[in-house]
Amino acid sequence: MNKEAFIYRIDSADTIISVSDNWQIFADENAWDGFLRPENVVGQKIWKFIQGIETQYLYQELFKRVREGISPQAIPFRCDSPSERRYLELLIKSLPDGQIEIISTILRSESRSTVKLLAVDTARSNDFITVCSMCKMIKVSAEKWIEIEDGLIFFKLFETDEMPQLTHGLCQPCCQTAQNSTLPRPDID
Question: How far apart are CA 114 and CA 94, in angstroms?
């Protein structure tokens, strides 16, 4: 198995039944506490770990299509840590008996100055900011999303001791990309 691919499987009831051996290393690199240790993930519904109603709906649709035999193309997404931008692709495969295998592969990563907004141990205010679950941009208006670093400036978060809480949604381009990943592909002769 590629060290940069993280694999987990769910059963027909969307319960996580296995995670790859390198899961714990990735969890540790992201300071994911005990909440996301393999022994605390396996046996749980996947929906416990997918944040945001829009994102959950998108995954439900993708899982439904995969179980109906429509194999999606790889879907680009990001899984950032406070000090690193990680660009990944998501591949969802159908397995027997309604099971699904989800493969997240790191394509590349970029170091950056630590973004306090993404640190799990930072003090939080009662304010909320919406982050796109797929590209990690921050929503600044109904139609506008910007990079996290630009969002810190936009919301003047360098001037505050507490960071807002994060909620998750989907920007229109990411939603469209994911939905288009399972459209029937034209036959090529």
Answer: 38
Residue 173: give its domain's CATH number: 3.30.450.20
**pLDDT (tens digit per residue) in 125-176:** 999 999 999 999 999 998 999 999 999 999 998 888 899 999 999 999 998 9
Contacts for 50 with CB less than 8 Å, ≥ 6 apart: 56, 59, 133
Task: Provide the residue range defining the domain that includes 165.
Answer: 5-180
Annotate 21-60 with b (16+ C-beta within 10 A) or e (fewer): eebbebbeebebeeebeeeebeeeebeeebebebbeebbe
CB crowding 114-126: b at 16 or more within 10 Å, else e: ebbbbeeeeeeee
Q: What is the pLDDT of residues 82-92, one digit of tens each?
A: 999 999 999 99
- Residue 45: inside a domain: yes
pLDDT of 71 reads 81
**DSSP β-bridge partners for residue 86:** 109
